[in-house]
């Protein structure tokens, strides 16, 4: 016999089914919402679409066939392991298959390399880079110049446009119509690399004598804030290069190109130790800030890396050094380039990051 009790049981059962149906519908909506949000974020961050082009990056290999040592600050340095970091990087870049080129951010051989081995050491590291299946763009660093003078170093690095009676190491190239790379020579004015009586050497020594009172010009002792950059292991961009930079950025603006600036020496105090800045970083950035075309500045030199966005919205990323990777670890990667962002995909010490800007 059907009773009120049975009816109540059925009613409670139907209520539970209704509640379960509502929960299921809510979960479905949340899943769809989360999926749509993830999809939107992925598209905004360049995921789910092909990059315009991609390129490999590495900084401060500083190889030498000598036992491990330490920096002035006591940080371990793995001189023989660093070339293994490079070899693994090249293997990874070749395995990627879609990298258009590689940029090396300078200091391929360490200053502690015995000088009778310098030439062969540079050739050995360059030969490892040349195992990449595509173009490799180099820039010079202070450790490169401790080993070889500019006139011997630049041909080995196959610096574009080198020759014609000059030893300039700055250049630009455009891998696709919408982007241009500007590679600066941070040791244009420098106390290392040029002949002792060269005007650029003399200008550098004058700057150091005026700005750094220490007898050891590699010491920043007593200097404060950004004045700590006035040490001999840094350098400056000269007037001729500065005029060239202005012309290139004007040309890029006219061609509606986005620009990525590369320099061994960092260009923003917020991204690096003050002792590793380009001497005239402020003047270089004044030129860069005249235009809206420069989106990202990439550098090496400061081994622990760094990041900042400056007052004009330009991203500054300093790449971690391959030299200071303990055995079995790495610091290399590649960058995917989109219309409105760069995505750095790093390994181990070199952390991944997105640099988003106006397209």
TrEMBL record:
Cofactor: Mg(2+)
InterPro entries (alphabetical): Calcineurin-like_PHP (IPR004843), Metallo-depent_PP-like (IPR029052), MPP_ADPRM (IPR041869)
Catalytic activity: CDP-glycerol + H2O = sn-glycerol 3-phosphate + CMP + 2 H(+); ADP-D-ribose + H2O = D-ribose 5-phosphate + AMP + 2 H(+); CDP-choline + H2O = phosphocholine + CMP + 2 H(+)
Record key words, sorted: Hydrolase, Metal-binding, Zinc
Superkingdom, natural source: Eukaryota
Subunit text: Monomer.
Protein name, as recorded: Manganese-dependent ADP-ribose/CDP-alcohol diphosphatase
Species per Swiss-Prot/TrEMBL record: Hibiscus sabdariffa
